From TrEMBL, chain A:
The chain crosses the membrane at residues 7-24, 30-49, 61-78, 84-104, 111-130, 159-175, 211-233, 245-268, 280-302. It is a multi-pass membrane protein. This is Branched-chain amino acid ABC transporter permease. Coiled coil: none annotated. CDD domains: TM_PBP1_LivM_like. Pfam families: BPD_transp_2. It is found in: Cell membrane.
From TrEMBL, chain B:
GO terms for molecular function: transmembrane transporter activity. The keyword Transmembrane applies. It comes from Bradyrhizobium septentrionale. The chain crosses the membrane at residues 12-36, 43-60, 66-85, 97-116, 136-160, 189-215, 221-246, 258-278. The keyword Transmembrane applies. It is a multi-pass membrane protein. InterPro entries: ABC_transp_permease, BCAA_transport_permease. Keywords: Amino-acid transport, Cell membrane, Membrane, Transmembrane, Transmembrane helix, Transport. It is found in: Cell membrane. One of its GO terms (biological process) is amino acid transport. This is Branched-chain amino acid ABC transporter permease. One of its GO terms (cellular component) is plasma membrane. Belongs to the binding-protein-dependent transport system permease family. LivHM subfamily. It holds the Pfam family BPD_transp_2.
Length: 326, 289
């Protein structure tokens, strides 16, 4: 795509996204849009580490939960606005990512993945025990103040939509900047072959640490937003394994290590699950993840490059008549 | 005090036997095929449901239903290896991790759809029986499960060390490329390894049924323990997995007894993280792989 065309598409996209809540008033639909934006954002954060550097974390719930708990504890116990708590949560997650990264990054492949699962589990278990200031297993509801934009509480669902849209734009912008900078190339080199990357002078531990911190920071912001949106927190939700799963899933299905991959993947998976829900109601437990896992298996077996890779293939074959890349 | 300690150790060892069946399966698959099977726990769950339905529909004792659950899961393993795993073998970790992970999600959620989230139990004549030795209490069902688990582990050891196929599997796990050059048929060896691992998971499921409830998420409990044991015992090392599983069972039990009822897993994970922190090179082979 030429530069001008790209800006045109981006402008059209921006107008559509901004105008959407004005035309769609159904609360069910807005809720789906918010979920799509939120999980796109989490996927984008995961993709920095998991996609570009191919460090397959299944423990991002650790940072989601830390973000959620930091802002909620600050708000409920000390009355501090979640806008501040959100940034504080991000910082806490960044700090936590240092020891966790130190621990996990010395491990490769499946060892790394298992270690990330374990760290998220440990944090969940710890918050289950913290009854004094973090409410233990029962969790707590967040006091509903009605309309209080300064406390990140809105009467209109569309306001939440704009908040999470803003987060996603920030996430995509950061990814874009990283993708175009030397650190992006370093990440891809690490993802291809870490030993070879180090051999040509990439300081792999430092690059991974820095990107992991950014990834953790962004994931924590999502945690704060989600808790504010559902007005409830407990360890099982905040550190839910399914958050870790979905972060990875949307990226792989959409296209791992690409700017728009996590967004495309989320749109597909969340639309599918919304359709399933409206056809079947919530009566059949498990159907949503059953379909997710089938999509994931199909992608891995037939289109390992994800939907973006598939679309690029088709585009090159049918429109550009250029040889498709593998 | 000493009695409480001894009781906790016994409880831990007894459940550790089941962890061993699961983790030996994981380590066997990793050793031979170089794949971590994230779905191993779901096969324990399937083993449990097989025994549950055989018990409730036909009145078959869960321990007897071992002779059904093991072959069924062996066959499932051969088919999964042939139709799924074989297609993602390669230098790249990503498809392997996420294929077995997707399989785990699929089986878990299919069972949620088919069987609902309800807990299913089978009550046998020996479910509530226990031996009392001194002040110690040894539940019969758990003791049988432990004994059978150890016997199966022993059989596997004999199989790996005395039969040609077993030796081929060990050779493949030590150096796959050289083994292939020596004329070992990888497809056959991989299929038997995957099948055997799943059969062990099935056995674990059947052995658990007299004293544990079956529900769709049950596999996650066991696979988590198995991963910890497998990483601590060195991925791919059958003996290491066995010893580490028993240790994990004891660590969990001591945690529950002396730290708090909800703290068994904290102790286990703390052990794992400590190991990873101080002996990452002691895990697996060279460079933690």
């Amino acid at each position: 795509m030429s530069g001008n065309m790209k800006w045109l598409w981006l402008a059209i996209g921006a107008v559509v996204m901004l105008a959407l809540p004005q035309f769609v008033t159904s609360s069910f639909a807005i809720d789906i849009f918010i979920r799509i934006l939120l999980f796109s954002f989490i996927g984008v954060a995961w993709n920095l580490m998991g996609g570009y550097a191919k460090q397959l974390s299944l423990g991002h719930a650790a940072y989601f939960g830390l973000g959620a708990y930091t802002s909620t504890i600050m708000q409920v116990n000390y009355g501090i606005s979640p806008w501040i708590g959100m940034i504080a949560g991000g910082v806490v997650a960044m700090l936590a990512s240092l020891p966790i990264g130190w621990l996990c990054f010395r491990l490769r492949g499946p060892y790394f993945t298992i270690a990330t699962i374990a760290t998220a589990q440990v944090l969940m278990l710890i918050f289950l025990k913290f009854r004094d200031f973090a409410w233990g297993a029962e969790g707590t509801t967040i006091p509903n103040l009605g309309s209080a934009p300064l406390m990140m509480q809105f009467e209109e669902k569309s306001s939440y939509y704009y908040v999470v849209l803003g987060l996603l734009v920030v996430g995509l912008w950061i990814t874009h900047r990283i993708e175009k900078s030397w650190i992006g190339y370093y990440l891809v080199a690490i993802g291809e072959d870490e030993d070879a990357a180090e051999a040509i002078g990439v300081n792999a531990p430092k690059v991974k640490r820095d990107i992991y911190m950014i990834s953790a920071f962004l994931t924590a912001l999502a945690g704060t937003f989600y808790t504010q949106y559902i007005y409830f927190i407990d360890p099982a939700t905040a550190f839910s394994f399914s958050v870790s799963i979905e972060a990875a899933l949307v990226s792989i299905v959409g296209g791992i290590g690409t700017l728009w991959g996590p967004v495309i993947g989320t749109v597909l998976l969340e639309t599918t699950s919304a359709l399933l829900q409206s056809w079947l109601g919530s009566s059949v437990g498990g159907i949503q993840l059953t379909v997710y896992s089938l999509i994931l298996m199909a992608v891995i077996l037939w289109r390992p490059t994800g939907l973006i890779g598939f679309a690029t293939d088709v585009y090159h074959r049918t429109i550009r008549r250029k040889p498709a890349r593998a | 005090m000493w009695e409480t300690l001894a009781q906790a150790v016994i409880n831990g060892l007894l459940i550790g036997g089941i962890y061993a069946l699961v983790s030996i399966g994981v380590t066997l698959i990793f050793g031979v095929i170089k794949i971590v099977n994230f779905a191993q726990g779901e096969f324990v769950m399937i083993g449990m449901y097989i025994s549950f339905f055989l018990a409730t529909q036909f009145g078959i004792d869960p321990l007897v239903s071992l002779v059904v659950s093991m072959p069924v899961l062996f066959l499932a393993g051969v088919l999964i290896q042939h139709f799924l795993i074989r297609r993602v073998l390669g230098p790249n970790d990503m498809p392997q991790i996420f294929l077995t992970f997707a399989l785990s999600l699929l089986l878990l959620n299919l069972s949620l759809m088919l069987f609902t989230a309800n807990y299913r139990t089978v009550h046998t004549s020996y479910s509530d029986e226990a031996f009392h030795i001194g002040g110690l209490y040894i539940p019969v069902a758990k003791l049988i499960a432990f004994a059978v688990a150890m016997a199966l582990s022993g059989l596997l050891w004999v199989f790996l060390h005395t039969t040609d196929l077993g030796k081929a599997m060990r050779a493949a796990s030590q150096n796959r490329d050289v083994a292939m050059l020596m004329g070992i048929n990888p497809n056959r060896v991989f299929a038997v390894a995957f099948g055997t691992a799943l059969a062990l998971a099935g056995a674990a499921g059947s052995l658990l049924m007299p004293f544990y409830s079956a529900y769709p998420f049950v596999g996650q409990v066991f696979v988590l323990m198995a991963f910890v044991a497998v990483v601590m015992g060195t991925l791919g090392n059958v003996m290491g997995a066995l010893v580490a599983s028993l240790m994990m069972g004891v660590a969990e039990s001591l945690g529950i007894q002396f730290v708090g009822a909800d703290s068994g897993l904290i102790v286990v994970f703390a052990l794992l993280l400590l190991t990873l922190a101080f002996r990452p090179s002691g895990l697996g082979a060279r460079r933690g792989r």
